[in-house]
């Protein structure tokens, strides 16, 4: 089974990288771009076949390593 | 004072802090490789600066999960003092030994410069040789030193006197002007609740000899030697 984890900054946490990306896009002729938030995308190959168990383990992975819950939220998506 | 300095792949200030400790205590600290869960019995554990694990995922995130850090957490729980400097500060926050986290500098640039710090309290192992309110000058060198914690955590830190140092102007004014990285409330260093763990972004170990631009960092190590010998 494959899993996709998205890690994003929590609302209210300043994202200077997202801001810089937004400014660059505006400068490149995309004035329609407002706020930009940058995150991480992590794809994992799992041996687990049970979806519930996989989700539970992924949740643990996110809390232990993949996300820093002081500033980041995460979401888990199972594929296939 | 017996000290251990941890070494991770990508650490680069371990030699500097070992030298500072030897200069002040007369005793070489023991260097401990990250893969060793076997930490010698010591009076002080230092997590040095650098770029452990190439800053992969988040600064300090991988190092915080290394075998040696499990043992460091256990010792910290027993009250053994832990000092995290720069990347070491990032590692101990990621390990959950200190509140908050260090984010990318607000201006997105690596900053390498001398900064002024206001000592917030002299009531700790780490700051006993300073006066509360004293201004010291030490260098910083980092791209992710932007301290952040939520409002509730900040209030708790302020109420309990857990802020160790704040960035300030040369005259001691704390108003953001001396802040090199956007840290919330100009915070440069914090303690845990018992003040036995301290983390800071600046490098006191690089301000211990006049030849290298200043000696304001020396008192931090002198205080530790005095308290732990």
Structural topology:
The complex is a heterodimer of chains A (80) and B (229).
Chain A: E1 2-9, H1 16-27, E2 39-45, H2 51-66, E3 72-79
Antiparallel strand pairs in A: 1-2, 1-3
Chain B: E1 3-7, H1 14-25, E2 30-33, E3 44-47, H2 67-77, E4 82-85, H3 87-94, E5 101-103, E6 111-119, E7 135-142, E8 146-148, H4 151-159, E9 163-168, E10 187-191, E11 197-200, H5 218-228
Parallel strand pairs in B: 1-2, 1-3, 3-4, 4-11
Antiparallel strand pairs in B: 5-8, 6-7, 6-9, 9-10, 10-11
Helix pairs in contact in B: 1-5
Describe this structure in words.
The complex is a heterodimer of chains A (80) and B (229). In chain A, strands 2-1-3 form a 3-stranded antiparallel sheet, with helices on one face. In chain A, 11% of the residues are buried. Chain A has a single domain (2-79), classed as Mth169, Chain: A, CATH 3.30.1280. The radius of gyration of chain A is 16 Å and the shape is elongated. Chain A is built from 2 helices and 3 strands, in the order βαβαβ. Chain A has 80 residues and is an alpha+beta fold. Chain A starts with a strand and ends with a strand. Chain B is an alpha/beta fold. Chain B has one domain: Class I glutamine amidotransferase (GATase) domain (Rossmann fold, 3-Layer(aba) Sandwich), CATH 3.40.50. Chain B is 22% helix and 24% strand. Chain B contains 5 helices and 11 strands; from the N terminus they run E-H-E-E-H-E-H-E-E-E-E-H-E-E-E-H. In chain B, strand 3 (44-47), helix 2 (67-77) and strand 4 form a beta-alpha-beta unit. Chain B is globular and about 45 Å long. The chains are: A alpha+beta (80), B alpha/beta (229). The interface between A and B is medium-sized, with 11 and 19 residues.
